[in-house]
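Render this sequence as a predicted structure.
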Amino acid sequence: MYHDAVGQFDRVAELMGLDKNVAARLRVPQKSTIVAFPFRRDTYKDVETIFGYRVQHLTTMGPTKGGIRYAPDVNLGEVAALAMLMTWKCAIVGVPFGGAKGGVRIDPMQLSRAELQRVTRRYTMEIINVIGPEKDIPAPDLGTNEQVMAWLMDTYSQYVGHAVPAIVTGKPPALGGSVARREATGRGLVFLIPQAANAIGLDGNGLDVAIHGFGNVGLYAAIAAQQAGHKVIAVSDISGGIYNPDGIDVPSAQKWVQEHKYLEGYPEADHITNEQLLGLECDVLIPAAVQGVINTDTARDVKARIIIEGANNPTTIEGDEILREREVFIVPDILANAGGVTVSYFEWVQDVQKYFWTENETVARLREIMTKAFDDVYSISISENVDMRTAALIKGIKRVADAKLVRGVFP
């Protein structure tokens, strides 16, 4: 994944004619922290050693910002790649943060609530000197949620001796979380559907949408798409997918998952594999689960006219080339899923100012920022005759490079 992220950067940096000194500086993260700490399960029989990471790619623009993921295959390269992508994402939407990312190499699905809390609090203490509301602000990601952020916020607050809501975003509203943060990434994806459709001459109303993933991003993208008048024909999770050409009742599927944990067994739709979902006949495909699902094996089967990337790095370099050859219009992750970091920024601002906005205010500001960012990137795409991913990277890298150049080198 890090190879892909750096490869994308190198290609665009050369296309831009980026100063070679700035390019060399941006290819690697500024700070990387690796920790190993003990973890005892509820049985108290064995003490395991758990690995955790926190990478800060860029500190030039302000505090760094990025999620924390819990997954059994998390590694330093993956976290560093995601931190780099977060830098471009923040720059594209004009959020004054640099990119960061964190992770713990553990399977959260195998943990009890008490075990999850112990992992979170110990990981927080291990990285406590590199995070802070003016230094580095974590948020939820794959395998983490509002509750995990609440434990992180509490641990940090206990350490400094007073409540610090601005240390994390994506926390419960009761602790200063934004009322629209949970839905922000999914909503942001759906806001871009009409613009993407218009770009290829397609009517942006009532489109067929397939969503690969039914976690936080996929679920709220499905809800938002249905509310916007689109037809959600398929969704999926780790257990497989469900498909109904007449449209899935998203609240019904959500209730089933709440009761049964997975989509498996859902009675009101046909069951398909995740690979079959990627190849469905539809107008819009939203990969909203994990990285690398659209690759050399799956890209040729994609029949969607538009792909809006909800997950981080869901399309490999090789898969991206195949899709561009087939003239599939791709709204890249660094633009499409920036709704999450945008509302995280809103949350941080509100925590710092101790003044909170209504949900309508938050959603309206999110829509304004996302649609403007799309227009900016699309304009670059047309003027430079490049694809949307390249155009988004040009916008993000240029903003960061300009900041680097005007700040200069210390000492």
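Summary. Residues 359-384 form the longest helix (26 residues). The mean pLDDT is 95.
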